[in-house]
Fold:
Amino acid sequence: MSTATFRIWRGAKGAGKFQDYTTEVSSGMVVLDAVHRIQAEQANNLAVRWNCKAGKCGSCSAEINGMPKLMCMTRLNSLPLEQPVTIEPMKAFPHVKDLVTDVSWNYSVKKSIAEFKPRPPDGPDGTWRMAQKDADRVQEFRKCIECFLCQDVCHVLRDHRMHDEFIGPRFLVYVAALEMNPLDVQDRIPTLRKQYGIGLCNITKCCTKVCPESITITDNAIIPLKERVVDRFFDPMTKLFRVFSGSPR
Amino acid sequence: MSEHLTHEHDVLVIGAGGAGLRAAAEASSAGVKVAVISKSLLGKAHTVMAEGGIAAALANVDDRDSWRVHFADTMRGGQYLNSWRMAELHAKEAPACVRDLEAWGAVFDRTAGGRILQRNFGGHRYPRLAHVGDRTGLEMIRTLQDHDVHLGIDFFMEYTIVSLLKDGDRIAGAFGYDRERGRFHLFRAKAVVLATGGIGRAYKITSNSWEYTGDGHALAYHAGASLMDMEFVQFHPTGMIWPPSVRGILVTEGVRGEGGVLRNKDGRRFMFDDIPPAYANQTSNTEEEGWRYTQGDKNARRPPELLTRDHVARCIRREVREGRGSPHGGVFLDIAWIRDRIPNAAEHIKKKLPSMYHQFKQLADIDITVEPMEVGPTTHYMMGGVRVDPDSQMSDVPGLFAAGECGAGLHGANRLGGNSLSDLLVFGKRAGQYAACFAKENSFGTIHSSEVAEAEKQTLAPFEHNGTEGPYAVQQALQDMMQDLVGIVRQEKEMLLALDRIQEFKARAERVGVTGNREYNPGWHTAIDLNNLLTVSEMVTRAALERKESRGAHFRDDFPGKDDKFSSLNIVVRKGPAGEMQIRREPIPEMPLELKQIIEEMK
Structure:
């Protein structure tokens, strides 16, 4: 069994420093295993979020050697262990302690998005019919485990801190799942343009690159939503029609 | 003087997995003020890990299915120790609960006709599990979460309850802390629903996360409620075993439902070697017939890989013990072989089992479309829990309800796969409904400040000690001990030893000290949870000692057969007046004739 060094951010409310911990590592270990071992043996009060340890719950998001990743799905053999492995909290959210950040903003954004509202049931027994191919499109978005790594890497949030104007890739995916659900009857296109700030995304695709569920965030969710906004608000024929029909917006 | 914040709600739901979120939705829609306590962030509870599906007799794939068949399957799987009334309600109400989920936005896989698709699973006669690939639990918890946040419910994320508060016999509220700042909170409530999930962290090899320390089981016990069936811990037959760091992570039964087979190191499908008589009529005796079953042939019987979990787990253990295991001490689970049977097998596997593909590829460097997986049993689910009224889910403490894994009754001696998610929905809904009724009919109880002060003192105790014991070291030692002495195969001598060891661990737990302050301090949280794990471990061990037979998930080396004496009774655990743990045998109420007839018909 060999050892490796982990350079972990310690501190609370943004103040803090890196601290080095050397621990034993063995075949097949992931970063979260090393963090757990350090926590159990050297730093009992090291704050870290985790749950399933199988890439399904999206709790253990962090920045490993500068890359936003799930600690439970990052194997040590994918990292250069001859140098210290740095582990830092996500940068797009307020810091709480050590590797934990305050992600509550995401939960309030979710709450502000109009909920699913189905059309009347198709069958007298209160059930709906949906083709698998229609389900497929929505199911890709519903794979999201809400790890918020896409939010973390998005420059609109991370660098420009526009949390009040832009809901971020996670919630554009969420809106896409609702808008493309064949049963849903709500219209979120006007809010998408105004409150959700979809125009702020300039499709650099960083979110798609970090998604641990490999959701094609930009191409399959954001761009089609942008097209819907454009069709609704900027299509010249539609504009002309509105002028004559006197319809608002 | 105690320093805490006070909150007031009609119904307090402790736990934010499937059962808690479903209970909260129902209570809230009944018009009462509801709070949900979530030990982690919302949407991260263990429900997220459920893979296979939700068992409900929708009869979308096989129209021979009905609540009667589902009822009979559940009772057979539970070796008839189930609460027959809960099994009846569950089978009847599960389909409507699945349809509720669809109305709230869940997107299930579809049949060719556009209905909700259902798949085969162990112990279910017909394809019955509504599912979304192999991530059904995620779909369910996300649907409930997204529905609930619009209902005006107050969510307390990353809060932990350490004690229930009573006013005389009845419930009056709960006391706990928030993780972020370590502040204390008093929750006054007219009714409390426990939905805290399982106890997996009492064992070394488990599919459960850090949260599953039997909190609800211990809270209810200390509040004076009865618990039952605590000897029945489900060891899921297929957990990952290699590399060591992933040991215990679940491999869905859906792999076998899609045609995956179990083989020993000699390549033999050993599940054909031991088919229990109760299942002989419905189990295929050739590989050919088993394969046809997984491909939807209604005239074929299911392959022995889809026998109940307790049986499959013991067969795997036998193969390993007798030297026929895989290199890392398990057996082989092979889905790749279906390439001999169907075209585009690799694509098919990735489509049907995407997260399994992902999990093995990423964590074990194994491509399951090409090579077999190595698997072995992992602690998965607790059949035992708070004894409740089958209709209302109320415990014998007035105003205290329990639903989901921390409740008992539906599953008896062994739970069928897929019956957990439906359990959460059916009985979460009922618990929410009846808790709201209770809250409407009763006023707030009085909170006794001495009780609060005591809870506070106990919670802070680890800071007072000068750290002669670390919380993680004691927890790990307890897990090792339970795995060794009260695991898949048990015997009296070892369990008596376990009881002694538990007393030693209790003494060690008293000496556990923690460093740092109260803000987001996992060492402190582990020290607090340790007390619950000790209570639960003792309940499991004492109940397992009392059941001197082997049945379902409970297997005794010293009593390897079933004993009729135990066929119609539950083992009930309760805290005695002097604080001692009392164990008693209680007869199961007589089943009504019409239900007996259903069971006879389905044999």
